[in-house]
Amino acid sequence: MKNITDSFVSVRHWPSAGSFEFNTDILATNLINLSVVLGVLIFFGKGVLNDLLDKRKQRILSTIRNSEELRRGAIEQLERARVRLRKVEIEADEYRTNGYSEIEREKVNLINATCNSLERLENYKNETLFFEKQRAINQVRQQVLQQALQKAIGTLNSCLNSELHFRTISANIGILGSVEEITD
């Protein structure tokens, strides 16, 4: 140690004003230079380094706080999305259930409407058959009555002579006359 300090402080090695000399002891000069540089850096750079470290620390803490807020926000959004998904799933199940129920109702309504239409058609067919049957019966009755009347008129005409005919007409006129007296 004495050797190191002697190389810088020793007066006998100080050259005169006219000459300049280099110290060739590299190891001794480097250690001293490094200690001086480090001392100056620590003394002057301590505040700057502390400021830089504090700013860096504040940025890191701010980034962590922002990250935490973003994480909480993302968790809240995720929960809202899950709640919305549950609601949508419930609504979809309701629509599905209601849709199937509605389809079943429509199916039953369609079957009932078809049955009612078939029943009305059957009733209309039966009514039509009944009326056609009645019309046919009435036509047959009219034809039978017409034929019977024609046959009776033919029989009467063949059996009646003019005198019998005259007496029948006179009797009918007498009956009509007595009916008029009763009604008056």
From TrEMBL:
Alphabetical keyword list: ATP synthesis, CF(0), Chloroplast, Coiled coil, Hydrogen ion transport, Ion transport, Membrane, Plastid, Thylakoid, Transmembrane, Transmembrane helix, Transport
Keyword Transmembrane among record annotations: yes
Name of the protein in its database record: ATP synthase subunit b, chloroplastic
General remark: In plastids the F-type ATPase is also known as CF(1)CF(0).
Transmembrane region(s): 26-49
GO MF terms held by the record: proton-transporting ATP synthase activity, rotational mechanism
One CC-aspect GO term: proton-transporting ATP synthase complex
Cellular localization per UniProt: Membrane; Plastid, Chloroplast thylakoid membrane
Family designation: Belongs to the ATPase B chain family.
Organism from which the protein derives: Bletilla sinensis
Coiled-coil zones: 64-98
Top-rank taxon, per record: Eukaryota
Topology of this chain in the membrane: Single-pass membrane protein
Oligomeric and partner information: F-type ATPases have 2 components, F(1) - the catalytic core - and F(0) - the membrane proton channel. F(1) has five subunits: alpha(3), beta(3), gamma(1), delta(1), epsilon(1). F(0) has four main subunits: a(1), b(1), b'(1) and c(10-14). The alpha and beta chains form an alternating ring which encloses part of the gamma chain. F(1) is attached to F(0) by a central stalk formed by the gamma and epsilon chains, while a peripheral stalk is formed by the delta, b and b' chains.
Stated role: Component of the F(0) channel, it forms part of the peripheral stalk, linking F(1) to F(0).
